[in-house]
Amino acid sequence: MSKDAAATAPASQTERFRSLYARTQGRIFAFSFRRTHSFEDAGDVFSETYLVAWRKIDQVPDGEDSILWLYATCRRVLANHYRKDRRRSQLLSEMGAEVENGSLAEQGSPVSSAQSARELLWRLSERDREILMLAAWEGLDSNEIGHVLGCSAVAARVRLHRARNLLSDEMRRMDLLSSNETHTHRETLREAPAIRETLGRHDDDG
Prior knowledge:
By secondary structure, the chain is mainly α. It folds into 2 domains: 1-85, RNA polymerase sigma factor, region 2, helix turn helix motif (Rna Polymerase Sigma Factor, Chain: A); 89-206, Arc Repressor Mutant, subunit A, CATH 1.10.10.10. It contains 11 helices and no strands.
């Protein structure tokens, strides 16, 4: 928010925005960074999200619901970002080719394990990947996920269960669950807490 805008805004709105920003900035930047491919892109999405929040500060709910409102807003900003910039698809294709060629790291190394875990997520559809990220990285329960995605808690729970199953299928497909790859699998999960937590939460929040 610019100094000029802050100067002309009612004091209550300015203080409310400052409080919102102070409470949520870390989580929103992390949310943006996990869904982009550079600090610059994440910074652009982050800034645009709070610009929308400033313009609509009267619509931002109080308390913990405010972070859900910001997550939903950030997802819309990201959608616009993806439409304007097709680099994401190009980067994913290049990353996949590098993984197949073994050029990123030697197999079995921590970097390779972390890359394998990341690759697992990017093999899923955007819809499935997003709900897994909301559950694992943002730590949201079904009610909160439903709020962010604009669906019921029941629908969110069903979609999350389906996405977890698809992720497990991908892990089996990459032989990460076979007995011969137990050590590598454990390293992968250690390097990717999002996957570990997501698969570990078989009893959803209800």
